[in-house]
Amino acid sequence: MLFSDHRLVIHEIGIYRIPARVITYTQRNLKTLNLAQFESALQSTACYTQPPLDPDQFAIQIDQDVTSVLDLMAQLKSITKRQSTRRLINWHSPQSRSNKRECRRLERRYRRTGDQDDYRAWRKAGRVWVKSVSAARRDFYSNAINDSLATSKSKWSTINNLLHVSKTSVVNVGLTASMFS
Fold first, then answer.
1. What is the pTM of this model?
2. Can you tell me whether residue 22 is helix, strand or coil?
3. What's the average pLDDT block by block, 10 residues per block, for the chain (181 residues)?
4. What proportions of the chain, in percent to the nearest 5, are helix, strand and coil?
5. Residue 13: closest CA among 170, 177, 178
6. Strand partners, 77
7. Other C-beta atoms within 10 Å of 96: how many?
């Protein structure tokens, strides 16, 4: 005879996942466009062979001709993708962005060459980048708090917004310890 002090507990939590937002847009894949064929097709259009004298009509004609040639050679494709739920990082400064670019460039160089001088330059650039990101973040948050209105309510509202604080609800499921015995 087997005895166990474990019991299976099954519960369904009433939290529903919010469906992801999607973005749909159209684009042409111009990387696969044969430029020689595109140029010869444009040279056979009306805007090239018989251009209108009126500049407004000429602009309209160019737009129509280029679009019609592109419709034949590089069709529009509809692309749907999920939109990120992450908030945009808006505290980066131009200096921190350029430091990040420089650090990544030096990292790629070190990975390619394996040279110790490249490694030292990459690590030094990494330390500079971390310092500039910290300074940019500090400046963003201090400016956001200092720029809020003088009332304490508006300051706390700004702080809660910066910290992404939202009101949480407690779900009471009505379970007690006696229900498990």
1. 0.45
2. strand
3. 63 75 89 91 90 91 93 92 74 90 96 95 96 91 77 75 64 63 57
4. 55, 10, 35
5. 170
6. 27
7. 21
